[in-house]
Each structure stands twice: as structure tokens, then as C-alpha cells.
């Protein structure tokens, strides 16, 4: 799924799914990320890995979509991990949302850059 400046791709290895995002995760792109996650969770995955290392920009709509993804996976009982670009890591930290997204098994800091 793509919108100008943003893409999200789904991949799976067996029942472990990856949601790979790149570009600008803004309010318009947030809905595409939510749709992709819904497709993923409908497949009843054993885990979800949200790869945001190639996201270059995030706004409040993008923050909402990442928090919503975490919440939806949690509500479905699906283990959820996220990898962040350094820029997104800093925005989430300043917004006080980083700890909420990194609960459970954390992605090593080296993969966030």
C-alpha cells in the first residue's frame, strides 16, 4: 500500500508477520498503516514486527497509528515488537510515548538507527 511519500509492505515467515514502513508517516499515511495492520492481524499471526527504521517523518497522526497498532496487537494477544529510526525514536521520547511502544521484548538499540 502506498500514498505519496509513504509505503507499507507486509511480509510473513510462517505465522510471524512483519509490517515494513518507509517515508513520511503522517495523518494521511496513518490510515494505510492501520489497514495493513488489520490485514496482518486477521491472519492470526504468532507475532508482529513493526519495522519503522525507514520512516523519515512522523506527525500526530503517525504517532496515533503506531500507538493504535501496539494496542490492537495487544488486544489480540499477539506479541508486538517495533524498530524505530533514530529520528522517530527521538520524537516518541519527547512526546513521552516511547516507553509505551517498547514494552515487552524490546528491539536492541542498535537496530533503531
Write up what this structure looks like.
By secondary structure, the chain is of the alpha/beta class. The protein has one domain: Transcription Regulator spoIIAA. Helix content is 40%, strand content 33%. A five-stranded mixed beta sheet has the order 1-2-3-4-5. The longest helix is centred in the N-terminal third of the chain and has 16 residues, at 27-42. It is globular and about 35 Å long. The two termini are 24 Å apart. Mean pLDDT is 86; it is low at 104-113.
Please give the count of helices.
4
Number of strands: 5
CATH homologous superfamily grouping = STAS domain
User: Could you say what the CATH topology is called?
Assistant: Transcription Regulator spoIIAA
Shape: globular
Q: What oligomeric arrangement do these chains adopt?
A: single chain
Order of helices and strands: EEEHEHEHH
* Strand ordering within the main sheet: 1-2-3-4-5
**What is the mean pLDDT?**
86
Name the CATH architecture. Answer: 2-Layer Sandwich
Number of domains: 1
Beginning-to-end CA distance, first to last residue: 24 Å
Radius of gyration: 13 Å
Note poorly predicted spans. 104-113
Largest sheet: number of strands, sense, barrel closure: 5 strands, mixed
The helix fraction, in percent, is 25-40%
Strand content: 25-35%
Structural class: alpha/beta
Please report the first level of CATH classification, the CATH class.
Alpha Beta
Amino acid at each position: 500500500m502506498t500514498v505519496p511519500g509513504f509505503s507499507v509492505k507486509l511480509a510473513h515467515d510462517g505465522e510471524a508477520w512483519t509490517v515494513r514502513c518507509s517515508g513520511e508517516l503522517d495523518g494521511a499515511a496513518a490510515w494505510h498503516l492501520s489497514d495493513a495492520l488489520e490485514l496482518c492481524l486477521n491472519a492470526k499471526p504468532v507475532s508482529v514486527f513493526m519495522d519503522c527504521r525507514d520512516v523519515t517523518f512522523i506527525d500526530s497522526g503517525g504517532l496515533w497509528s503506531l500507538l493504535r497498532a501496539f494496542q490492537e496487537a495487544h488486544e489480540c494477544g499477539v506479541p508486538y515488537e517495533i524498530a524505530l529510526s533514530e529520528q522517530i525514536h527521538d520524537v516518541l521520547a519527547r512526546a513521552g510515548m516511547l516507553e509505551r511502544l517498547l514494552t515487552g521484548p524490546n528491539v536492541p538499540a542498535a537496530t533503531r538507527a
